[in-house]
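Re: that backbone. Tokens:
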């Protein structure tokens, strides 16, 4: 695996509440690991939530002896959720904080994905396919047929998240297992990218720029060109 990633404050926010982590080499029992977390909460709290999520998950994985990727990710997320939830209960400044979380591990031709919230993972070959499902009010309205997807992009309640890490004692992530082909590209991003750029435009940028760093920078530049309304985080990896 080869990867590159970057997080950017965007054009409208004064603070970056996103956090990212990526490594192409082994971490604990896992052969690699890619994470995007988008924090939410009051001033500083979202930043603390996303950083704590990544710190807890990577700490747990480094010390784990569990070889099954899904099992180790599930237990790491429970550990992180417990830590963030307790912090939010113990300190008033952190009250109500939480974070989205999307992560992937690639083992041979299999990719294991976990997500909570509306940060996303896509697979790109000659097409682009969203693997994760957003845990958001708008996405639930779309899935139940109450809202058209095109109208959903500009819905006034688009930012309402129905599931997040750290906001409750129990956490319910989604897990996906995907078979990858050689040269498939994997995109993890916060909604600061996916809300600003259409999927097909992201695909075009990735396919037109074989250098991963160039593709990452151009996607962030494009999101900022379109307004940069939120923090923007991108990790791009290739098998």
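Recovered sequence:
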């Amino acid at each position: 695996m080869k990867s590159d990633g970057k997080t950017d404050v965007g054009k409208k926010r004064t603070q970056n509440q996103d956090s990212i982590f990526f490594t192409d080499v082994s971490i604990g029992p896992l052969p690699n690991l890619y994470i995007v977390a988008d924090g939410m909460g009051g001033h500083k709290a979202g930043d603390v939530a996303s950083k704590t999520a990544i710190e807890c998950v990577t700490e747990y994985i480094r010390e784990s002896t569990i070889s099954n990727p899904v099992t180790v990710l599930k237990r790491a997320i429970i550990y992180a959720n417990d830590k963030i939830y307790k912090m939010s209960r113990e300190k008033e400044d952190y009250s109500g904080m939480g974070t989205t979380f999307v992560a992937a591990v690639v083992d041979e031709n299999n990719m294991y994905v976990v997500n909570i919230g509306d940060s996303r993972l896509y697979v790109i070959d000659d097409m682009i396919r969203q693997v994760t499902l957003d845990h958001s009010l708008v996405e639930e309205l779309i899935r139940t047929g109450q809202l058209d997807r095109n109208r959903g992009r500009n819905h006034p309640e688009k930012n309402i998240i129905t599931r997040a890490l750290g906001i409750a004692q129990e956490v319910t992530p989604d897990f996906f297992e995907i078979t990858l082909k050689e040269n498939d590209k994997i995109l993890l991003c916060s909604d600061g990218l996916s809300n600003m750029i259409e999927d097909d435009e992201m695909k075009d940028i990735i396919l037109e720029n074989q250098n991963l760093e160039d593709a990452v920078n151009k996607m962030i530049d494009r999101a900022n060109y379109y307004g940069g309304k939120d923090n923007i985080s991108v990790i791009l990896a290739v098998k």
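The longest strand covers residues 33-40. The first helix runs from residue 45 to 63.
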